[in-house]
Design brief:
By secondary structure, the chain is an alpha/beta fold. Helices cover 35% and strands 26% of the residues. Strand 12, helix 9 and strand 13 form a beta-alpha-beta unit. The chain binds NADP nicotinamide-adenine-dinucleotide phosphate. It comes from Setaria italica.
């Protein structure tokens, strides 16, 4: 569960950095900071933001592109405040593509200047919206030469989220049937492609404008959720349902279309929201109780497994994501790019849904 990582990371945050064999190339840099929670207008591009010393298993990356994830917008607005409020001003951002600028003592598998891409864990304390970002060894992998930095930066956070659900939780295997609710979004599209690559038969719900994209990703069926009844449109039962939307209606559909023993996974777990409402000490046990209650309820009523799934750094998953994206089998189309100095406009475009699809920030 992510809250174990939260506690571990809090301990790490309070500790003195371990020895750094490779000196950081930069001691300070430009970064986008959130000085207080709020709308896009709170984002500030600041110079001279400190770059911490590298720990032994960390890599300093010169950022070339970062994609915007819904989590960035939510963190900017105060989601996760139980963890992040004491850390304001905060650097947000999870995805990255760039070049290695320095390596920690035990990170010599990466070389200076090497092109890499990856994503930070959701609870990482210093984000990627900075000229220099720090990622651990298991959060980075070499960037396929066939992808630009912009294209690469769109992939890791979404794909690792889908990977964790499909492979870590549901343990999908060849021949199984997977339903992706919200196949038109970044995580949904990654899930369709990862499940297809694993040899599964995939159906997905999406908006009419995403049908072609979802079918192009290898789905057997794309159901327009604005025009069709999903339950009536799908045929037979599924082994796994990944629900990227996670509202009561999609949860009801997801549970109903599973075979007994199947896995329903929502990306809208309530742990962070409950921790924000009640504080970490009370909120996390409340979240555990709420999850257990649902799990017992659906096991008894439908014979299915119910999960909240979260993105997690996963070296094996990232390696497979690199392999598939290098082979052209895993793509997240980028709809629009903004220079980093226009980060407010970029967040506004995502927030107001002015751009349908991935938005990427480019670093000069
Ligand atoms: N738990 C975690 O660790 C984790 C990690 C990553 C993301 N998330 C969450 O997962 C969600 C998706 O993330 P993302 O990066 O994929 O976002 P995204 O790229 O912005 O995609 C969102 C998509 O949802 C689709 N959609 C909206 N309502 C729908 C419905 N009723 N049925 C089917 N599709 C619907 C839309 O697709 P159409 O354009 O086809 O209508 C939209 O493009 C966000 O809420 C995000 O916060 C959670």
């Amino acid at each position: 569960m992510w809250w174990r990582a939260v506690r571990a990371r809090r301990r790490i945050a309070g500790a003195r950095p371990a020895s750094t064999a490779a000196a950081a190339a930069e001691k300070s840099c430009r970064a986008v900071v959130v000085p207080r929670f709020g709308g896009p207008e709170v984002l500030e591009v600041r110079q001279g933001v400190p770059v911490p010393d590298l720990k032994p298993r960390e890599v300093l990356v010169r950022t070339r592109a970062v994609s915007i994830n819904p989590l960035d917008l939510r963190m900017r607005s105060g989601y996760g405040r139980s963890i992040f409020e004491p850390l304001l001003p905060l650097i947000i951002g999870r995805d990255i593509s760039g070049e290695v600028a320095a390596t920690g003592t035990y990170a010599s598998s990466f070389s200076i200047g090497q092109e890499v891409f990856g994503a930070l864990h959701p609870t990482a304390l210093r984000g990627t919206y900075a000229d220099y970002a720090i990622l651990s060894l298991d959060e980075l992998t070499p960037k396929p030469s066939t992808l630009s930095h912009v294209e690469a930066s769109a992939i890791p956070f979404a794909a690792l989220t889908a990977w964790r659900a499909l492979h870590g939780t549901a343990r999908i295997s060849e021949g199984q049937r997977v339903l992706v609710i919200g196949g038109g979004g970044a995580v949904g599209l990654a899930a369709v492609q990862l499940a297809v690559a694993a040899g599964c038969g995939v159906s997905a719900t999406c908006g009419s404008q995403s049908i072609e994209r979802v079918m192009g990703a290898g789905a057997e069926q794309a159901i327009d959720y604005t025009a069709e009844e999903t339950e009536a449109a799908v045929k037979g039962k599924f082994d796994a349902v990944l629900d990227t939307i996670g509202v009561p209606e999609t949860e009801r559909i997801g549970i109903n279309v599973l075979r007994r023993g199947g896995h329903y996974m929502t990306l809208q777990g309530e742990a962070a929201a409950l921790a924000d409402r009640y504080g970490l000490a009370v909120g996390l046990p409340v979240a555990t109780a709420a999850l257990l209650k649902k799990q017992m309820q659906y096991r008894s009523s439908h014979g299915v497994e119910y999960w909240w799934t979260y993105m997690r750094a996963d070296a094996e998953g990232l390696h497979e994501i690199q392999r598939l994206s290098g082979a052209g089998k895993l793509q997240i189309p980028v709809e629009k790019t903004f220079p980093i100095n226009q980060v407010r406009e970029a967040h506004m475009a995502k927030e107001k849904k002015l751009v349908h699809g991935k938005v990427v920030l480019e670093f000069d």
